[in-house]
Amino acid sequence: xxxxxxxxxxxxxxxxxxxxxxxxxxxxxxxxxxxxxxxxxxxxxxxxxxxxxxxxxxxxxxxxxxxxxxxxxxxxxxxxxxxxxxxxxxxxxxxxxxxxxxxxxxxxxxxxxxxxxxxxxxxxxxxxxxxxxxxxxxxxxxxxxxxxxxxxxxxxxxxxxxxxxxxxxxxxxxxxxxxxxxxxxxxxxxxxxxxxxxxxxxxxxxxxxxxxxxxxxxxxxxxxxxxxxxxxxxxxxxxxxxxxxxxxxxxxxxxxxxxxxxxxxxxxxxxxxxxxxxxxxxxxxxxxxxxxxxxxxxxxxxxxxxxxxxxxxxxxxxxxxxxxxxxxxxxxxxxxxxxxxxxxxxxxxxxxxxxxx
Length: 357
What we know:
The chain is α+β, with helices and mostly antiparallel strands. 22% of the residues lie in helices and 15% in strands.
């Protein structure tokens, strides 16, 4: 959620620059005009300008259906107030656009501030403690999230994009506790949608995409830390809302499909997704992140991990067909991509970069 400040600033400036309207937000240059107590409609805005903003809010993929907003940013942007109402940008929850002239109904999610967490919980929902709460953040990417999205029985099926809904990213425990709270970055959803669009353009059926693991509370993540307890990393990106483990399962059998159409289901199918991820990251460097492949176990088939951590990392959970020349369990980043003309997609990286699944 941290990068959304710059994202909102860019999209609103692009939409309003032709109208000569001033945009004020936290961290704006001193020369910018600050609009305080602007009210629900500070300036007149026509339908074309509204449409330009809502189109931008649909993300790079054009498939986002919700955008995140943090009350802590203290943004006073007239057009957002026009679209959602002043109360919406200051009240945690999911808010629809209140302007009938807008055709692309992207909703606004105002997050509950991180400061509302007490003793490792929000209400009755157990979250635990983020790494930075215990020992300080090792980098900006590992700072505490700005806030939480509340998920309840009324909005668990609410779409966040064309292929994904809020419930896809809920942690897999505390099934009887409502409401639940998640951390989710829209950059992750945008990247996943771009990867699916790339695959679809190459003949892969993507309607069956399934999130095996989305957001993990630090408490839940800690239960699987270490090779003997599940292989999770202590600083897993899943805790920061910018990682997802997925399979593409168009035939509904609960396992990865034969994506390369060779009549087999093996590691080469994961490589099809890797090639798509590489193409998306080349086209959108700001969505760069990690990609990992994991072998089948008694509980599940093979799956892939995708994140938007900000730097490039590649690794494998030692699926034999992807780990040529390496001993099983080596964990070395040996995944290859056809887009790289036979060269490894990444050099050996420090263990910390490979193990933040």
